[in-house]
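Quiz preparation item.
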């Protein structure tokens, strides 16, 4: 069920109504403002970019909206990379903002230090204790832990953090139904197999549950073991509207080459760089990657 009035708030039934990016690049004869980013390098006008701000409270969301954010990603507990926010917060933020609110769907599995974490499949990983499981969130440092038997911990999370069992998937679909019922504009989600591939059966169920809301596949992509272009094509074929990625590097700037190669590869899929993006590097990153949507906690 979609909340009454949703079509009036989001008239096209899609979050692409905000801007049309195809014609937003500045023309060669547009004036250059001294001291602006275009004064030092060619690139898109910031007014043509959609800035999605990651927020965990109503105050953060209202502040981001007042600063010019075009969309909010609402989540909770960035210390563990973000989890599904409380329902009261979802309802309050959606009702209070005039810009779209996308909601992260990432459940906390009881008895685990990280969302989605299950008992180790490999006995050699049984020694992994709280020091490994305590992560610093998606905006923390990129690190590799020798005890993970080759699994990278990128930005404070690993592929194991996006492997969900049936109980977790049921919880995710229930949370998606709630988000739709209160008028959320979109869903942010991702699921991997234990081997690190995109979990296509799980994602088909989650995308179907979210429909007609657009789905963002989040940075689980960055720890997937699949070839990035294979994974990209799979995510697009699932019907996802966008992909949030750091280009499989610690920051989006470091991953700019892969991001640039992915932008435009599938016209139906928006590539949204995220991680380490600030007002200082936004224009350079936009010029290099040609992306038109950007995600972060420090923009706008």
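Solution:
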């Amino acid at each position: 069920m979609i909340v009454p009035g949703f079509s009036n708030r989001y008239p096209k039934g899609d979050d692409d109504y905000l801007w049309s990016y195809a014609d937003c690049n500045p023309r060669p004869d547009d004036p250059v403002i001294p001291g602006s980013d275009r004064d030092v390098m060619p690139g898109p006008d910031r007014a043509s970019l959609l800035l999605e701000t990651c927020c965990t409270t109503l105050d953060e969301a209202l502040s981001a909206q007042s600063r010019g954010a075009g969309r909010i990603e609402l989540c909770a507990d960035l210390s563990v990379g973000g989890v599904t926010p409380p329902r009261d917060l979802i309802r309050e933020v959606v009702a209070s903002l005039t810009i779209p609110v996308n909601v992260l769907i990432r459940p906390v599995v009881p008895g685990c230090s990280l969302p989605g974490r299950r008992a180790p499949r490999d006995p050699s990983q049984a020694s992994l204790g709280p020091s490994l499981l305590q992560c610093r969130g998606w905006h923390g440092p990129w690190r590799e832990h020798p005890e993970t038997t080759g699994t990278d911990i990128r930005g404070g999370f690993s592929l194991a953090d996006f492997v969900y069992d049936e109980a977790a998937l049921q919880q995710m679909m229930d949370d998606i139904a709630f988000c739709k019922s209160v008028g959320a504009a979109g869903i942010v989600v991702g699921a991997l197999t234990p081997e690190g591939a995109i979990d296509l059966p799980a994602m088909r169920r989650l995308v179907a549950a979210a429909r007609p809301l657009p789905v963002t596949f989040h940075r689980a992509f960055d720890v997937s073991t699949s070839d990035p272009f294979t994974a990209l094509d799979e995510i697009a074929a699932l019907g996802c509207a966008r992909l949030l990625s750091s280009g499989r590097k610690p920051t989006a700037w470091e991953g700019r080459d892969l991001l640039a190669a992915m932008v435009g590869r599938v016209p139906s899929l928006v590539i949204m760089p995220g991680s380490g993006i600030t007002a200082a590097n936004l224009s350079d990153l936009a010029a290099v990657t040609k992306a038109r949507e950007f995600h972060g906690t420090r923009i706008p």
